[in-house]
Specification:
There is one protein chain. By secondary structure, the protein is α/β, with parallel strands linked by helices. It has helices at about 10-25, 40-45, 65-75, 90-95, 110-120, 130-140, 145-155, 155-165, 170-180, 185-195, 200-210; strands spanning about 5-10, 30-35, 50-55, 80-85, 100-105, 125. The chain has two domains: about 5-130, Rossmann fold (3-Layer(aba) Sandwich), CATH 3.40.50.2300; about 145-210, Arc Repressor Mutant, subunit A. It has a six-stranded parallel beta sheet, sandwiched between helices. Helix 1 links the parallel strand 1 (about 5-10) and strand 2. Helix 2 (about 40-45) packs parallel to helix 3, helix 8 packs across helix 10 (about 185-195) and helix 9 (about 170-180) crosses helix 10 (about 185-195).
Length: about 220
């Protein structure tokens, strides 16, 4: 079954480029495109995409608000925000709104394709080129101690270890090697962490780890 993708961007040439790259893949189908965030919700309900690639800056309704509307209208649809350098404030808003990640518009075609597949399969995406700057902004507003303590108390010591390593950018296989555990065991721990903290995916897990104080900006990877 193909991954259904909806494109939301006010620049026609950008939409053409995205469509050309994605349509060349046998497992991806671009089911539609709209030129403003105001039309994203209706298009999502009509076309039922698995993934929405959403520009962050649009004239009437920006990508952050449009993403909220899309996810409220159809929670099964995953949203990836398309951004450029210098738009950290938009990326922060996107992560807080619950999107599945963000991708730089200048990313190479293979990274775009991989991002769509990752998000469609339930994963999250944080572009490494801007992740640190964004996470540092989150860390600048610490979570109240009582909230932090309650959230951490819900996790076992091993689950805290796993969450810390997720925040440092490790894959399940890398976490398994680091903790000398099987990858299936790590997948179970990741699922438990997401469930206990009420998180949707690894993107929100990274943010939570910084907000809870498990990882600090500048921590060694």
């Amino acid at each position: 079954m193909s991954i259904r993708v909806l494109l939301v961007d006010d620049e026609a040439m950008v939409r053409v480029g995205l469509r050309m790259v994605l349509s060349a893949e046998p497992d991806i189908e671009v089911v539609g495109e709209v030129g403003d965030g105001e039309d994203a919700e209706a298009a999502t309900l009509e076309l039922t995409p698995d993934v929405v690639l959403m520009d962050v800056r649009m004239p009437r309704v920006d990508g952050i608000e449009a993403a909220r509307r899309v996810m409220a209208a159809r929670p099964l649809t995953r949203v990836v925000i398309l951004t450029t350098f210098g738009e950290d404030e938009y990326v922060e808003g996107a992560l807080r709104s619950g999107v599945s990640g963000f991708l730089l518009k200048v990313s190479p075609p293979e990274q775009l394709v991989a991002a769509v597949r990752t998000v469609a399969s339930g994963g999250g995406l944080l572009d490494p080129s801007v992740t640190l700057r964004v996470i540092e902004r989150f860390a600048g507003a610490p979570t109240p101690r009582t909230v932090r303590s309650s959230a951490l108390d819900a996790l076992t010591e091993r689950e805290r270890d796993v969450l810390t390593l997720i925040a440092r950018g490790l894959s399940n296989a890398e976490i398994a090697a680091d903790l000398y555990l099987g990858e299936a065991t790590i997948k179970t721990h990741v699922s438990n962490v997401l469930m206990k903290l009420g998180l949707r995916d690894r993107v929100q897990a990274v943010v939570a780890a910084y907000e809870l104080g498990l990882v600090a900006p500048g921590s060694p990877s």
